C-alpha cells in the first residue's frame, strides 16, 4: 500500500486556559511541523504509464494553501477564551486570524481538527485519497500522532456540520465578521 507523505511548517501562538499546564496559560508561540499521510480510497496497481497515485502537486496544493494562508501565524484559542471577546471589541480586523477550538487548542485537538479539514478538501476535490494519519510536532521534542476517525475524538459542542473543520474552505473559526 502506498502513502503520500507531506510535511509543512507553520508558526502559531496559543494559550491553554483550562488547567492542563499553568505555564501554557500565558500566550506563547511555536514553530510547528504538520505531516499528513494520504492513502488511495481504491488502491490498484500502477498503470504502466504515469505510475503515480496522484501527482504530488495535485494532492497537496489545497492543503498547503490552507496551512500557509490560514494556519500560519494564526492565534489558536479556546472558543470560550475571554481573549476572543477582547479581539471582537478592540481588534475586529484580526478576528480572521483567530483559530478557535472547542476547549483548549492542544496539539491533540488540532491534529484531529486538521485531519478532518484535510479530509473535507480531499473529498470535495474527488481526489480518490484520504488522510488516515497526521503528526504535529509542536516543539522539536514533543509530537502528537493521530490515527483514526477524528470525529470520534473531537468534543461535540454543537452540530458537526456547522464546524469549520468540516467545511472545505479556508476558514479556521465559525465567527461571522
Ligand atoms: N498533552 C499535551 N500537553 C501539553 C501540550 C499539548 O498540546 N498536549 N502543550 C503544552 C504547551 O503548549 C507547551 O508550550 C509545550 O510543552 P513543553 O513540554 O513545555 O515544551 P518544551 O519544548 O519546552 O519541552 P522540553 O521538555 O523543554 O523540550 C504543554 N503540554
TrEMBL record:
Pathway: Purine metabolism; 7-cyano-7-deazaguanine biosynthesis. Its EC number is 4.1.2.50. It catalyses: 7,8-dihydroneopterin 3'-triphosphate + H2O = 6-carboxy-5,6,7,8-tetrahydropterin + triphosphate + acetaldehyde + 2 H(+). Pfam families: PTPS. Catalyzes the conversion of 7,8-dihydroneopterin triphosphate (H2NTP) to 6-carboxy-5,6,7,8-tetrahydropterin (CPH4) and acetaldehyde. Belongs to the PTPS family. QueD subfamily. This is 6-carboxy-5,6,7,8-tetrahydropterin synthase. It comes from Commensalibacter oyaizuii.
